[in-house]
Amino acid sequence: RRPQTNAANRTRANLALKDLMAAEPPGEMLEGGLGDEDCDDMVNLHVLEADTILRNLESRFGMTKPYTYVGRIVISTNPFQWLDGLYTDETIVAYSRVPDVFADLSPHVYAVARDALDNLTQQQESQSILISGESGAGKTENTKICMGYLAAVDSRQGGGGRNGVVGVTTRVMQTNPLLEAFGNASTTRNDNSSRFGKFVRLQCSGAGAITGCALDTYLLEKSRVSAPGHGERNFHIFYQLLAGNATLRPELAAAMGARTPATFTFLSAPGAVHAIKGVDDAAAFDETRTALRAVGLADADVALVLELVAALLLLGNIRFEHSDTAGDGQGGATMGGGYARVALGAAAAALACNPADIESGMCSRRLRAGTDWVTKRHSVAEANSARDALAKALYAGLFDALVKRVNSSLGGGKKKKEEERVGASSAFFGVLDIFGFENFAVNSLEQLCINYANEALQAQFNAYVFRQQQAEYETEGVPWQRVDFSDNAQVLTMIEDKRAGLLTLLDEECMLGQGTVGGFFTKLKDAQSKCPNFKVPRIARDTLEFTIEHYAGPVTYDLEGFLEKNNDTLHPDLVQLMQGSSFPLLSSFFGNATGSDDKQAQKKGARKKMETVSSRFRAQLHGLTEEIAITGIHYVRCIKPNASASASAFEHTLVANQLQYAGVLEAIRISRAAYPHRMPHARFVAAFAALHAVETGGKRLRARGGGKGKATADAGKRAADEEADRATSSLMLQTLLPGQQGGLGYWHAQSKVFFRPRVHEKLTLRLRHALGGAALVVQACSRARSARKTFLLTKKGAQVAQRLVRGFLARREFHRRQAARVLQAAVRRRQARTRFVAGRVAAVCAQRVARGWLARKLCKTLVETRAQAMIGAHWRRYTQQRYFHELRFAVVKAQGLLRTKRAVAKYLRRLKDAKARGLFEFQLSKLREKLVAEGDSRSDLENKNRELQEEIERASAVREALDAQKAQVDELAEQLRASNEAAAKESAVRARQEREHEQVIVKLRMERDAAKKAAVGHLREERLDKMKEEQKRMYLTHEGELKELRAMLAQARRELRAVQKERDELFTQDRVKTCQLEDIKAEMRELGQYAGAGAAARTKARPPKVAPPLGSPEYLMATEASRRATRGVGTYVPKPRAPGGPRHFRHLTEMRISEDCVHAVSITPDKSRIVTASDDKRVRVWDITTGLCEHSWEYESTPRALATDSLHVYAGFGDASIVKYDVGSWEATSFASGHAFTVYVLLFAKGAPLVGERHATPMVSGAGDGELRVFDAAACTLVHALRGHNAAVKALAAVHGAPLGASVMLSGGDDGEVRVWEMATWTCLHALTGRGSGINSIVSLGASAPTADKPACVRVACASDDGYIYSYEYQKEAGWGECAAVSAHKDVVWALGSISGLIVSASEDKLIRVWPASTPPPWECMETLTGHGDAVCCLAVTQNHVFSASSDGMLHMWKLV
Fold first, then answer.
1. What are phi and psi of 107, to 5 degrees?
2. Beta carbons within 10 angstroms of residue 577's beta carbon
3. Distance from C-alpha of 1239 to C-alpha of 1211, rounded to nearest angstrom
4. Distances (CA, A) of 1217 to 1177, 1181, 1184, 1262, 1281
């Protein structure tokens, strides 16, 4: 669409402008007028001609003075460059402080903003600034400049940045990049043309502070989305998205490709422009994204908006092809292949819709035929129209949503507490930036609506500037020369008449189901045939056209597409599809879309009235004009000096046309003949009575009438008051403005006083000066009164002070003479006292020196004596110790000799006793026979063990047979599926039989599950589930085989149970036999002492050790030791134990639970399952009985901690999250812990106050950030947050005991400290300092009973990084005592556990050691457990069992026996 360049039309417009100006005599000179060039206010031009006006504007344009006044109307000539000197902060301050901006400073748009703001604050009346002009004239920039002035003034008055909040006007300025990106585009006339109208409504308080903002938009040109004009661009946001660094989802980014405008259909129309000179789209994109965040959108919402824009571009790349898939010869549109499918899929993903549904909605539509629905296929053109309609509807919805978001962020219509306190009013400050008059080569419905809006605003301008003023002058009887102006009321009537108006006929034609453009054209031609402003071509053409004579010139409109654009409907199928989107923002676009089904209306037989584009725009325009009409209006007329956007060219013809459009001539003429200011008599008296009183020196006059519109009940009294006020105002005017009556300076009318230009301002300025002088007098009087009062008080105080001083001096002289003797005595006493004190000080110094010398001498003597005593003591200890060792060696040697002598004598006596020796030999032979018998029984046990191994192998064979049957089941799967399909069609009897079979199958599956679990314990849960499904299919086809298999599995289960029972009995017997063998060996050693007198000599000369004979007890013991050493797991027993002796740990089993390090092990409350957390980022649940992994979860982070209560298991992870597992269903629920680092430890604080609605035991977590957090574990909510340590918290323990009184919790961390917390209030009671090494585990050792030597106490043990176990003790009177250290391991101690009065410690050195817990430290190791191949990382303890896990992923189970 290119603008018309008809030279004839422009010439006629210029001549018309000159003719209108010729009504003023060419040579008329205004008194006090300025020159014809560089005139600030064109009302004051010497000669009022077209050339004079154009020359003045051209001269100011050349001097970079873009603004010129016409009275109080600002003419803004676009300089096509940014003039920095005009918009500085100093300029804003100057225009906000001068008394009269129109008289004291050069023309500026700031003057209009200042005038409107003053009127708003003084009169408490809403104000509007209407900025109009054609495209490219600078309307948008002038709007920004006005808003910038308001923002600066509001900020200086305290409106911006109150309490750290950005001002409303500043936030409005921040939204400009957003509205320009989504609402502006490059046209042939303007690189940044607003393709929508907007009215910015700033809500103000009574003091003029801006408190909120509301933004209304009008008629977005959404048709540009799918069809930008020749030589124009689409909306800026599309090019910014392609040039910026937007992060899109992968499918969108892949479909977008290289992101060049040429690759997208909506941006690559014929003759389209892709770039604007001097504009960086990438930088503009960053500003747009910042503006989106400024209106309160989160990053996720910003990404959603950008993805929706990208989806619109991809919708344009969808191609349709004609195909006849039904074979009926009619065919229809189908989706093209290749890239079109990719674009559709990516766009559908961004819209959260099904691609197939979008394709169906574009290629076809559903129509109602009676009570049925019929699907009609679209042609290719209809499919393209449906695609474009969807794109336009989406973009319009997105634009409206962003405008709503902007209004929400600006707080339009809301009063804050501060505003209510200062007294906010309902007044507002409006700035209108509306589209200018448009006339293109092809004009459509959009241009009709735009020009209709300009006609309505021009009519309001005429009414405000011309008609209202003339009517008021005539009513008041003010003599003035009437000015004729062009009235466009007839054009408005022709467009908006409710019966035969153009828009009314258009809406009626759209309401018809079969309405056509031809029918509309016929109706319009018949209805408007007599209107002189409506014309139709006399010669028939290919297209239907009509011409309207607007106030700015004739415009020809092409009716093609009028009805479709006015309906602006989207097919119901696509509307319903978009309403079903999973994105709430997207579905809200189509909440009230046209074409949606209304079930209630259908039931009543009524049809909802369709809302068309023209009716909606007409309602908006009427509301706008009505709202502006009740405000004080200020006009800024923008002029475009040239069509090439040059900063130096000035085209007279173009400017003359725009001046004609704007009605500048009429405004100049009416301003020269008019009275711009007028005031009612009562209001004038009230306003300037003070000035009259000051200048005349008389009494201040009072107004008797309402002044500001106050009504009086008595009409007669009101008339009398008004007459009195009229007389008073006349008297005041004669005094204040002598010689200016009769229209020279003012006109005294019936109810008002009318002032000539500048007269009211000068009078107001005189009033300000008079009030200022009066204020100075008042201030002087007030200051004189204050100074006089101060002087009198000072004088009175001085007199009192003088009287007191004289009395004091007299009394002092009197008392001095009387006190002379007393003073002399005091002086002598002082001298004597001084001599005495000096002597005493000297004596004290001498004594101090002497005593110090004696003390130092005594100290030296004591030190030497102590050293001598210590040396002597050490020497005596050394000599006595040496003597003791020598004596003990001698005594031992003597005892040995004596005992040897006695043993020899005893042996000799026994040799003599033959009977005793025979008895001993008999007993020895019996014992040997017993050993042989025990060896035989041991051999039998080994044979039984081999048989058990064979049974296990047979069970493995059974498992292999089951695997073979699995293959057979797979072959029969297809047959089962076919039989199921046939069975579905059978009778009800067959269905009942199948349900009975299904119940039998369920029962068999349960039995099969139990048998499989007992027979093949190491199979995974997945294989068991698969076997269950296979058994179900097998039973349906081979019921007999399933029964045999069930019997076989039951038999195998019984045999395995019997084998397990026998193995347990044999193991018990083997242990008993081993103990008996040890007893026999002990007896043999004891008997061997009496074997002969040469026992000691034979012991020294013992022959080399030989292998024991096969089957002997020694051979059996050696075999057992070798078996344990080969297995690598066993118990190191320092002292031999017999059955019934001290308790010790026996190794039960070992199993691999992970390929990586295991960080935590926990036991469920029912002692049936083990929960593990390992370094492979998995949490597993194991059945203790079968050793099978029942559940497994894999996560993104490593699990580090576990804790269990009666119903749940909790796991802490490296990403600071916590997962809760239900023990019954094993469902996982994740919630955030609030920690910043890894959760290392979890603890259920038993004894703490219950929390939550369920009264649950609180759970405490410790993490790498040093914090402890208390949770309501049942509700997954935070209760307390405790800051306890300076490093990671890795150990927690709850401690109970009578000495404590209340339960406490201990925490330990890498900072080496142990902190004691009171769980009732969760406060830190003590901080116990350790040895500096990190604490890895804490365990409570319980409370000890009081004894005679020691009161009752509570002890705890802590594992540290230096290999020590530290013990702390608490006594009621002494509190927490110092720690005692036990060197437990050679490396880091990772875990501690308490079981049956014992402490179990696990270390990096692969060992587990057992310590006594019933006695105070230091302890001695009772037992060392070996078998782990790597560092032992964690322990889990039950009543009689210990579970240990190591870094190599192995789990060992120990039993206390």
1. -60, 140
2. 22
3. 9
4. 13, 19, 28, 12, 15
Burial classification of residue 1254, based on how many CB atoms lie within 10 Å of its CB (0-12 exposed, 13-18 middle, 19 or more buried): exposed
Single-letter residue type at 7: A
* Res. 1055: pLDDT tops 80: no
Q: Which residues contact 1420 (CB under 8 A, 6 or more apart)?
A: 1411, 1412
Q: Edge-to-edge, what's the strand order for the sheet holding 424-433?
A: 67-70, 73-77, 632-639, 127-132, 424-433, 197-205, 210-218
Place of tokens 């009578």: 1298
Task: List the beta bridge partners of residue 333.
Answer: 322
Measured CA to CA, the distance from residue 230 to residue 1006 in angstroms comes to 77
| Phi, psi values for residue 1219, rounded to 5° | -115, 135
- In angstroms, the CA 1367 to CA 1380 distance is 5
Name residue, tokens 């759970």.
1259
Which one is predicted more confidently, 642 or 917? Answer: 642
Q: Peptide bond preceding 177: is omega within 30 degrees of 0, i.e. cis?
A: no
pLDDT at 1127 over 80: no
The pair phi, psi for residue 170, each rounded to 5°, is: -65, -40
CA atoms within 13 A on the CB side of 1000: 14
Q: The pTM is what?
A: 0.50
pLDDT at 1425: 92
Q: Where are the beta strands (DSSP E) in 20-166?
A: 67-70, 73-77, 127-132
Cβ(79)–Cβ(136) below 8 Å: no
Question: How far is Cα 250 from Cα 307, in angstroms, rounded to an integer?
Answer: 11
pLDDT on residue 70: 85
Tokens linked to 798: 């001085």
Q: Rounded CA gap, 1359 and 1389, in Å? A: 5
d(CA 1045, CA 958): 11
**Burial class of 594 by CB neighbour count within 10 A (0 to 12, 13 to 18, 19+):** middle
pLDDT bin (cut points 50, 70, 90) of residue 1097 is: very low
**Contact, 655 vs 54, CB < 8 A?**
yes
Cβ partners under 8 Å of residue 159, min gap 6: 167, 168, 169, 209, 210, 211
CA dihedral 662, 663, 668, 669 (to 10 degrees): 180
Q: In 697-825, which ranges are E strands?
A: 746-748, 752-755
**Segment 1295-1316, tens digit of pLDDT:** 987 787 788 999 998 888 899 9
Beta strand pairing status for 632-639 and 73-77?
parallel
